[in-house]
Structure formats: structure tokens, C-alpha cells
Design goal:
Length: 150
């Protein structure tokens, strides 16, 4: 019996501080980023970017949010120019070059510091229930082992 699996995707979460609040405070520049970055990453844009400015009670709470839907999933950006803060999520059902993505983000948003996290996304279980039982049991035993050590 051949095991059917879904390809594991990736989710890059990057939080950073920009040296240029004008870039992260410009709706048109955020839209341009979301319009061009999928192609830069070899991804397929399926909708135009949706970008809007949010006016909070204070300038520190105000910012810009945007998202572009890609065939692989989505890319989103949230900025708070008064705090020089930028957050970017790249969620793809297919693997991508994280270092290339980070370099592009650092350059575009002129990041002077950042933190990145990468998560594997997706499932690798067989599609039929009988074949998945040993995998689920193995995973549950591993979780119990970790709980016993905490």
C-alpha cells in the first residue's frame, strides 16, 4: 500500500524595527511590496493586494495592514510607523527559501533589527484511517514522554 502525503508548507513570521518610518507608513509602498514580493519569491499572486490604514486612538496604535492572497496561501504585513515596527507573515503550502525572503524583507523595509521564526505547516498523514493509526499513536506517545519530563 502506497502512502499518500500532502507536502509540508512553511510559515515565516518576521518582526522587525525599520530605520525608515516613511517606508512603513506609506500605503502605496506597502501595496507595491505586496504586489511584487510574490513574484520575487517565485510564488503565484491570485488577488491584488488589499491594504488599508488604521487610525488608532494614538499614533503608536495607528498603522497599515495589508494582505495578498497567493496560490500557495498568503503574505501579510502590519506596520506601526510611530514605533518603527513591522510584522510580516509569509505562509506557503510549499517550501521556499527563508534566507532569501528575510534578505528581501530586510532590504525593502530597511530593518535595523529583526526576529524571525519559521514553522512547518501542513500534514504528512496517510489519507486512509487504518494507515494513520501507527503514526498517531507514535505522536501521542512522544507527547506523553515530553509531558513526563516537564
Amino acid at each position: 500500500m502506497e502512502k499518500e502525503t500532502l507536502e509540508v508548507g512553511m510559515h515565516l513570521v518576521l518582526d522587525g524595527r525599520s530605520s525608515d518610518p516613511e517606508i512603513i507608513g506609506d500605503v502605496d509602498r506597502i501595496r507595491k511590496f505586496l504586489d511584487e514580493f510574490p513574484k520575487y519569491m517565485g510564488m503565484t499572486k491570485v488577488t491584488p493586494p488589499y491594504v488599508f490604514r488604521y487610525q488608532g486612538a494614538t499614533s503608536e496604535e495607528s498603522g497599515i495592514s495589508g494582505i495578498v492572497i497567493i496560490a500557495e496561501s498568503h503574505i501579510s504585513v502590519h506596520t506601526f510607523p510611530a514605533r518603527r515596527y513591522v510584522s510580516v507573515d509569509i505562509f506557503s503550502c510549499k517550501p521556499f527559501d527563508v534566507d532569501e525572503a528575510v534578505q528581501g524583507l530586510v532590504e525593502y523595509f530597511r530593518l535595523v533589527e529583526f526576529r524571525r521564526q519559521v514553522f512547518d505547516r501542513g500534514v504528512e498523514y496517510p489519507r486512509d484511517l487504518f494507515s494513520s493509526i501507527p503514526l498517531v499513536l507514535e505522536e501521542r506517545l512522544e507527547m506523553l514522554g515530553k509531558m513526563a519530563h516537564t
